[in-house]
Amino acid sequence: xxxxxxxxxxxxxxxxxxxxxxxxxxxxxxxxxxxxxxxxxxxxxxxxxxxxxxxxxxxxxxxxxxxxxxxxxxxxxxxxxxxxxxxxxxxxxxxxxxxxxxxxxxxxxx
Length: 110
Prior knowledge:
Elements: H1 3-28, H2 32-44, H3 46-57, H4 62-69, H5 71-84, H6 90-108
Helix pairs in contact: 1-2, 1-3, 1-5, 4-6, 5-6
């Protein structure tokens, strides 16, 4: 992948992960103002996420892009562990490993 594609991918993963964690925090927070601010920030970040995704896809083929974008799932898993102390069960770790392996294989072939 080109340096531009990597920059777009890292930005996409960061925005997507932050957005998903903001939704989770809004769902678990009981204070109205904090809850609505987190929810609003998560919703308002969707257009930015979409533009970054389109920018990323301008540099890589769709198939490779979708596989590489799946690494955001692993980032959300790690973020959930850090922010919400979620358990890292064997099925979750297995899924994260397989996703990471698939992304590495896809990136290595291009």
